[in-house]
Design goal:
The protein has one domain: Arc Repressor Mutant, subunit A, CATH 1.10.10. The chain is an alpha+beta fold and about 120 residues long. A three-stranded antiparallel beta sheet has the order 1-3-2, covered by helices on one side. It has three helices and three strands, in the order αααβββ. Helices cover about 50% and strands about 15% of the residues.
Length: about 120
């Protein structure tokens, strides 16, 4: 019984580490080349999408998750941790488009850099 309790206590730390890495991959894939605020905004919208869709960040649909190159991985992991610990700069937005008005039904919450952030209806 004690072993099971110990395993359950350790699981969130393991899950959190992989979720941070997944979020870093999404932020790199979807927002590299943007300002720090733009990268964080994609992180916040990803976190919102995770909550609304009830999927983990690693299992989000409709996002690109390229591996962050080793030479910049530390920076993106730090940005992912920051996104997880700060208030959302995009409100309740759970989606984004690059450079265009959203083609799905939703209300725009913010524009940052080349991204338009919006809360999708019926995600």
């Amino acid at each position: 019984m004690k072993a099971l309790i110990m395993m359950l206590l350790l699981m969130p730390a393991i899950t959190q580490a992989s979720e941070i890495e997944c979020l870093a991959n999404i932020m790199f894939s979807e927002a590299r080349g943007e300002s720090v605020e733009g990268v964080i905004a994609v992180g916040h919208a990803s976190i919102n999408r995770s909550k609304v869709s009830k999927h983990t960040i690693c299992n989000l649909q409709g996002v690109t998750k390229r591996q962050v190159p080793k030479e910049v991985k530390g920076s993106y992991v730090a940005l992912a941790k920051s996104a997880l610990s700060t208030k959302s700069v995009v409100g309740k937005a759970d989606s984004w488009e690059r450079g265009v008005i959203p083609h799905r039904a939703g209300s725009i919450t913010r524009r940052i850099g080349k991204h338009v952030f919006y809360q999708m209806a019926g995600l």
